[in-house]
Amino acid sequence: MQSLGAVLTALLAVDFGAAASRFKRNALLWGIAAVLLVTAYIFALVAVALVLADYYSPIVASVAIAVALFAAALVVIVVVAARNARDRRLVDERRRRSLLQTNLAIAAATSILRKQPLIGVGTAIAVGLLLGLGKGRRRSRRD
Predict the structure, then answer these.
(1) Pairs from 102-110 (Cβ < 8 Å, separation ≥ 24)
(2) Integer Cα distance of 30 and 38 in angstroms
(3) How far apart are alpha carbons 62 and 51 in whole angstroms?
(4) Residue 108: helix, strand or coil by DSSP?
(5) What values do phi and psi take at 138, rounded to 5?
(6) How confident is the model at residue 118 (pLDDT cuts 50, 70, 90)?
(7) Are 88 and 68 in contact (CB under 8 A)?
(8) Do 112 and 105 form a contact (C-beta atoms < 8 A)?
(9) How far apart are CA 36 and CA 44, in angstroms?
């Protein structure tokens, strides 16, 4: 039995090692891609500023870009806030459903206990035994 445990442990260690190396590789590649995208974004902003500076003054071009980026940031913040609120509503709904199911199960259990108390006692003993199986206490003998 110990050899089976060793094999399973080795398989898990290999999977974790492969997942860790994959994660590190992907993190490095995503980091490089992010740096390149930020650099491209900065150069695009400089190019837009230069084009706008041809038509307007450099100060007006800079303010126009700043206002546009501020508006875009506000839109992103509103979208994130709306999604977070939606997620909170979904979690609350799941919690309400779970509580409702628990209450219905308790009501059904009390109904069964009133009508057939021996079934309830047997069920309680069975649940107690199942929960107690994994927590058996073994006393070590000290001689």
Answers:
(1) none
(2) 12
(3) 11
(4) helix
(5) -110, 125
(6) confident
(7) no
(8) no
(9) 12
| pLDDT reported for residue 82 | 94
Place of tokens 């806030």: 81
Number of H helices, E strands in the chain: 3, 0
The position carrying tokens 């898990």 is 12
Distance in angstroms (rounded) separating the CA atoms of residues 132 and 42: 63
Place of tokens 């490089």: 32
Q: What gap in Å lies between CA 82 and CA 104, rounded to an integer?
A: 33
The average pLDDT across 98-121 equals 75
Neighbours of 120 (CB within 10 A): 15
User: Quick one: CA dihedral 53, 59, 61, 66, positive or negative?
Assistant: positive
- Categorize the per-residue pLDDT at 86 as very low, low, confident or very high, splitting at 50, 70 and 90: very high
Tens-digit pLDDT profile for residues 17-63? 677 777 888 888 889 999 999 999 999 989 988 898 888 888 888 88
